[in-house]
UniProtKB/TrEMBL annotation:
Keyword terms: ATP-binding, Cadmium, Cell membrane, Ion transport, Membrane, Metal-binding, Nucleotide-binding, Phosphoprotein, Translocase, Transmembrane, Transmembrane helix, Transport
PANTHER family attached to this UniProt entry: CADMIUM/ZINC-TRANSPORTING ATPASE HMA2-RELATED (PTHR48085), CADMIUM_ZINC-TRANSPORTING ATPASE HMA4-RELATED (PTHR48085:SF5)
Entry-linked SUPFAM superfamilies: Calcium ATPase, transduction domain A, Calcium ATPase, transmembrane domain M, HAD-like
UniProt EC number: 7.2.2.21
Organism: Anoxybacillus andreesenii
Keyword flag Nucleotide-binding: yes
Similarity comment: Belongs to the cation transport ATPase (P-type) (TC 3.A.3) family. Type IB subfamily.
Full protein name: Cd(2+)-exporting ATPase
Entry's transmembrane regions: 54-70, 76-96, 280-299, 311-335, 620-639
Pfam families: E1-E2_ATPase (PF00122), Hydrolase (PF00702)
Amino acid sequence: MDAQVNFGAAKITVVGNTTVEALEKAGAFDNLKLRDEKAQKVEREPFWKQKENIKVYISALLLIVSWLLGEQLGEGHIVPTIGYAASILIGGYSLFIKGFKNLSRFKFDMNTLMTIAIIGAALIGEWGEGATVVILFAISEALERYSMDKARQSIESLMDIAPKEALIRRGNQELMISVDDIQVGDIMIVKPGQKLAMDGIVVKGTSTLNQAAITGESVPVTKTIDDEVFAGTLNEEGLLEVKVTKLVEDTTLSKIIHLVEEAQAERAPSQAFVDKFAKYYTPAIVVLAFLIAIVPPLFGGDWSEWIYQGLSVLVVGCPCALVVSTPVSVVTAIGNAARNGVLIKGGIHLEEAGALKVIAFDKTGTLTKGVPAVTEIVTFGGNENELLTITAALEKGSQHPLASAIMKKAEANGLNYNEVSVEDFQSITGKGIKAKVKDEMYYVGSPSMFEEILPNGIDKTISEQISTLQTQGKTVMILGTVNALLCLIAVADQVRKTSKEVIQKLHQLGIEKTVMLTGDNQRTAEAIGKEVGVSDIKADLLPEDKLNYIKQLREKYHSVAMVGDGVNDAPALAASTVGVAMGGAGTDTALETADIALMSDDLSKLPFTMKLSRKALRTIKQNITFSLVVKAIALLLVVPGWLTLWIAIFADMGATLLVTLNSLRLLKVKE
C-alpha cells in the first residue's frame, strides 16, 4: 500500500486497501485526522483558540512571571527555576518528542537542534534562556500552521464557486440533480442570474456570460448555439440550455483546483540553510564539548576545569543566535509590511521576494481598474449631451456592463436620462438594443449590427475611426437610426494611475523583466502593455496557459513573481516562486493562494515590498555570518584554556542580542 500526503491541500491519496482507522493510527505522530472529501465541511476552531496556540500563551505567561520572580528572589532561586522549567515543558513538549525521535535515528534537523540547545541551556543553569528559545520557536511554528490553514481554505473556497446541483432535463422531466450524478450528454437548464454547474455546449438560447471567474475577462461574453461554456460562470440575461460535455471532476474549474493543489504540493519550502547546517553543526558541537570534557583529564588535566570548559563550549555552541537570526528578521519585516498594508504570509515568501528577477502581472483588475469606463464620444452633427442622454436612457433597460459605463458617464455629466420616455424596448441578442424615443426608433450596439441595418453599411471614414479606437484597446458602441449614425462611444478598462510608475520603479530596483499576462485579445493587450511600459506582453491566455508560461519563466530565471487578482490567476499564483494578490478587489481565492497580498488594492506597495524583502534577505545573511564568526572566535579560546562560562554566555547572549537589534532595523524601511 502506498499513501501520499499533500499538506497544502489537506489531501491524502491512498493506493491499495485500508481503513480510515488504520490511516489515522499510522499518522498519529503528525496528528492526522481524516474525513471524506465530499462530506460536510468541519467547522475549524478559530486560529487563536487552537490547542497548540493555547500552549504557547501559557508558556509565555510562565516565562514572564518567572523572570519577574527571578528579579526579586535572585536568578538561581528554586521558584523561578521551576517556573522556567514548566514554561520549557509546556511550550516545547511536542518539539522534544520530535527532537528525541530524530536523535534516536541520528537525524539532525531544526527540532533536534532546538532540543539539544534547550536541554544544554538548562543543564548549565540558563533556564530563562532555554525558555525564551522555546517561545520563539513555538511562535514561528504557529505562524507556519496559520499559513497552511489559509492554503487549505483557499482550495475549499474555490470548490464553492460552482453550484453543487443543477436543473437537468431527462426525457420530459426536469429534475434538480447533484453534480456528481450528472452524465455527459445531459441537458442542463440555466436561468438568468444563475451560475453554471458544469462545462458544456449551448444547444438552445443566447445570453451574455460573465466569465471573470475562469478567464479573467473584464467584459461579459455573448454565448449562443454551439458555443462552449464553463462551470462557475454567471449567466446574466437569457435562458440557456446546455449539453453537458464533461463530468464534474473534469470541468475547467476542477482543473484549476487541481492545478492549485499540485502547485502547492510541488512547492515544499526549500530546506532552510540553518536546517542543513545544523545537520553537521549540532553533532559536531556535542562531540567537541564531550571530547573537551573527557580527553584532557585522561592525560592528567583537572577534571573540574575541563568539564567546565566542555560545558562552556556547549553554551557557546548553543545555536540561539543562529536560530533567532532568521525568525526575528522575518517577524520584524512582516510586521513593518503589515503596518504599510502588505500581508506577507511567512518567512520563506519574504526571503524569496528578496531574490526575484522577473515579475508577471495579470492585466484586468491588476494593471487596470477592471471596470469599463467611457473614454471618448464622437458625434456626427448632433449635440453630444442630447445623444448621450438618449443612449443612457436606452441602456437603462440593458444588463450589459458596458451599459453601466454609459449611464455613469451620463450621471457624471449631470444628465437626467431617467426622465426620457422609452417605448418598445427590445434586446437584439449578441448585437445591441433598440427602442423608441419621441416616436423615433434608435439603435445602440456594435459596429457589425450597423453594417447590417444601414442601407449602404458604415461610411469608410467612420470605419477607419472605429478601427483606430479599437487598436487603442477600446470597445466601440454606436448610437444611430436605420438611416444614419449619430455618435460613437468608446469604452475601455482604464489603466490604474500607479501602474506605469510602479513598472518603472521595479526596473530601477533591478527587476530584469516585467511581463503582462491576459485572457484579453492581442490588440487590447498591446495597447495597455505599451502604456504601462512592461517589457513583455502575452495575450489570449487561459489559466492553464498562464500556469505553463510561469513554469517556463521559472526554468529560465528561477525566481518569478506573479501578481494577480482573480480565480483564473490562482494556479499561476501558486506555481510562481512568489504569488502576489491584489487585496481589495482580489477574489478570496487569489488572496488565499498568494504568498503576499497588497491589502489596499494598490500596486504602489509592490516596490516597497521588494525593497523590504531585499533588505530582510541581506539582514538574515549578516546575522547568520555574524553569529557563526562570534562562535568560531569563542571556540578558539578553548585552545589556550581561556574560555570561561562568562565569556561563553556573553558570546552567546551578546550575539543573540546584536542579531536581534540588527533585525529590528527592518522597522525603519519606508516606502
